[in-house]
Design a protein that fits this description.
The protein is mostly beta strands. Helices cover 0% and strands 47% of the residues. Strands 2, 4, 5, 6, 9, 10 and 11 form a 7-stranded mixed β-sheet that branches. A 4-stranded antiparallel β-sheet has the order 1-3-8-7, with no helix packed on it.
Length: 126
């Protein structure tokens, strides 16, 4: 059974850093594109970052460019999201998602992914 489990969330002060992990099982991670998404209370789920199954290219939302970095370790079946210079507006539940079909230019669209984790809370506040 295909599973994704996020971890690494928590409470951090503005300007701080967190590294989220998305541990996968039940499928060969190397064949799947992975996206990170977030959802703040009362807002729609939005794409944060995406990495191709080959790991050769990635995409970021404008709001996180230069601050967030996505990476993958297929041998460990894990995808990471390093988040630096965090801002209060980064607060939300962060989800990772996987799909066998590479979404390409639609990599930040949640509608392109069929498999989702349960999410991890990130709160950026004093």
């Amino acid at each position: 059974q295909l599973q994704l489990v996020e971890s690494g969330g928590g409470l951090v002060q503005p300007g701080g850093s967190l590294r989220l992990s998305c541990a996968t099982s039940g499928f060969s991670l190397a064949h799947y594109a992975i996206g990170w998404f977030r959802q703040a209370p009362g807002k729609e789920r939005e794409g944060v970052s995406y990495i191709r199954n080959s790991g050769g290219s990635s995409k970021y939302a404008d709001s996180v460019k230069g601050r967030f970095t996505i990476s993958r370790d297929n041998a460990k079946n894990t995808v990471y999201l390093q988040m630096n210079s965090l801002k209060p507006e980064d607060t939300g539940i962060y989800y990772c998602a996987a799909d066998l079909t590479d979404p390409g230019v639609w990599g930040l669209s949640p509608y392109e992914y069929h498999h989702w984790g349960q999410g991890t809370q990130v709160t950026v506040s004093l």
